[in-house]
Specification:
It contains 12 helices and 14 strands. By secondary structure, the chain is α/β, with parallel strands linked by helices. It is 38% helix and 18% strand. The structure holds pyridoxal-5'-phosphate (PLP).
Length: 374
Amino acid sequence: MPKIKTVDHLASIKSYEGVKPLEIIAEELNIPVAKLIKLDGNENPYDPLPEVIATLSSLKNISYYPDTLSSNLIQVLAKKENLEADNFIASSGSDELIELLIKAYANLSDTVLSVSPTFGMISFLAQVHGIKHVAVSQQLVKEESFAHYVLNEDQFFDEAKQSKIVYIARPNNPDGNVVSEKFIERLASLPVLIVIDEAYIEFSVFQSLAKWVSKYDNFVVLRTFSKAYGLGGLRVGYGIMSNDIRKVLISIKQPYNVNIAGQKAAISALSSPLVDQRITEMKKIREWFISQLCLLQNQFKNFWIHPSEACYVLLTFESPEIPKDLYEYLYSKGILVRYYSSSDMINNLRISIGLQENMVKVIDEIKLFLKGGN
Ligand SMILES: Cc1ncc(COP(=O)(O)O)c(C=O)c1O
């Protein structure tokens, strides 16, 4: 049989590795799903919001296609953000918007720019569309117990001048760091599309830049219901941008990109007073977790902690064997954290913030491992 070749730029594509389903891991480890501690996807650790459960249980009319514009959801979002409805577009997760922006604004000769490390979807989707992705490496700086990635802003600015789309996750995934407003203002003065991914902004003390869309026509803010609102499985995100950019994205998106369950669940999640309470609690747990890690760091001195403005903490170890062995050790105990096999990240593990009692277990197990009890 003749083998049909893909388009050239897909010849060496590596598929995006999502997180493994819990049922498969449970079977592999012979541990019930309910006993697994899932800290590998920066997801919300709480039970679904009661308002969302009530909405999903009373869904009607699912035999009809959903509203193509998610109009009710957009109305609620516009009111909440104090912006116009025509500044908003809803999407199947914010991932979809990253792809729509690349499709709409990057010619084959254009470049998409980001820092490294950052959320892998930007390089993956650029590659899927045959667009060159340039990543400016950040420098890892270690100071006592802590490590920070430091961006050479002038180098990044020079690269931005040659780019069509500049993507910045703020806070950044995987380290939880936040690029300064001042630097973003400098970038926004360039004739390039600035995309600020605010997937984790709810966990940060820094303000959202959503309002900037009224000031800059080249400015897009991405948000998601997958993290603070706990709807990762329903795939709902949204973008905030000028009406001109919105119209372009609307004109090329799949018509029914957000399903009925997602649209309604997102509206209910926005009405829930529990969301803010849970965010506050997660931030407290994050600070407690970091304080415990500091104690371990002082004792063992073979890793560094990245201060985080998000719902996860990145650890950098002195050698790649430690995070690999620690990952495997935690996995064997049913604790799932994010391990990186790529050469630039091989010394790191990222641990999402979970329920307090689970984070206590994580600390206990890390301590046992570091003491050599594995
Ligand atoms: C920075 C960042 N943006 C976007 C996403 C994906 O969001 P969504 O679930 O809305 O596609 C993630 C997921 O981990 C992320 O880390």
